[in-house]
Amino acid sequence: MKPINRFSLEKQDGPYQTWPVNSRLFFDGAPTGASLPGYQLLCQFEVPDGYILVTDYDCPFEEITNFAFLDGRLRLKSCRWLGWMYETYLLTRLEWVDEKTFIVIINEQVAYRFTIHRWGIPYLRPRLRLEWLGWVPPEGRPNIKIQEAQTPADFIRYYDLRWKVLRKPWDQPRGSEKDDLEEKSVHLIALDRGLLIGVGRVHFNSPAEAQIRFMAILEEYRRKGVGSTILRELERKALERGAKTLVLNSREEVIPFYEKHGYKIIGDAPMLFGKIGHKNMAKDVK
Ligand SMILES: CC(C)(COP(=O)(O)OP(=O)(O)OC[C@H]1O[C@@H](n2cnc3c(N)ncnc32)[C@H](O)[C@@H]1OP(=O)(O)O)[C@@H](O)C(=O)NCCC(=O)NCCS
After folding, report:
1. What domains sit in the chain, N to C, each tagged with a CATH number?
2. Is the pLDDT of residue 286 over 80?
3. How far is the CA of 256 from the centre of ligand 1 (A)?
4. What atom of ligand 1 comes closest to residue 216's alpha carbon?
5. Ligand 1 center to residue 244 CA distance, Å?
6. Backbone dihedral region of 33: left (phi > 0), alpha (psi from -120 to 50 degrees) or beta?
7. Does the C-beta of 254 come closer than 6 Å to ligand 1?
8. Residue 151: its pLDDT value, please?
9. What are 20-43's pLDDT values in tens digits?
10. What would the mean pLDDT of 91-107 be, rounded to a whole number?
11. Ligand 1, atom 27, residue with closest C-alpha
């Protein structure tokens, strides 16, 4: 799936209440013959069998968000909407899981999964399958799955989360979330019902010394054991590969997290962006 910028919606004129429910859809400026619910195109993607477009009514109240699938010949094949009378259903974010599956978060708190089917039967089997996944985060401890990032889609959202948690709050540009050891590292992702909620990385400084870096958990999923689960799995991977000592540079505010896992402060580490104090910590595992 590739984000694109080739579709546009017709502009409506006059008082808002007189606007039609659908707007005509254009591709590279030319009419497609299709029209979509809404007045605002929020995002558009090219997928192997066609296109996914997300629209809404550009209304802060009673908002409905629409998800449309068009085939490669620009024919509207499926349109699903999320909304309810007098309720607001604002798109918070959309995350691709693979080339035919994406998860959306609505109002920062509810998750839905969409799957693009290769074929459909009108009304019985829509090309765009919609499933309610539940609250984000769920009540209590999430049932998380830890795995290595492997596919291109995994790495897109892996680096995106790293950047959002560890770099964006300090106005650092995209790209600053990577270093030159990425290809030699083990990258772990934590998933809640398919949604990426945390990441972490380990690399080797020497055959005996492994370093944990880039631990990042989505804010709403913190203090639920996700970071601990990732850290333990990174440690296990490092041990498997022969590590005798684990080191890391901890932000001062999260030192108790690493202490809880047996790490001890062994010195000062460089300040990040001139503002974030760090301590060098280590733990022997031999
Ligand atoms: C640090 C971080 C990875 C911890 O992940 P987490 O999923 O929240 O951690 P856990 O729920 O597994 O915490 C386990 C224990 O560590 C301790 N702990 C975790 N975060 C802490 C914090 N911010 N302050 C003090 N203690 C903390 C607590 O004892 C906690 O147990 P408790 O919740 O039962 O009290 C996460 O807070 C994060 O991503 N922070 C922002 C980015 C960051 O600072 N990354 C680290 C860069 S070095």
Report:
1. 2-134 (no CATH), 144-284 (3.40.630.30)
2. no
3. 8
4. 39
5. 24
6. left
7. yes
8. 94
9. 999 999 999 999 999 999 999 999
10. 96
11. 257
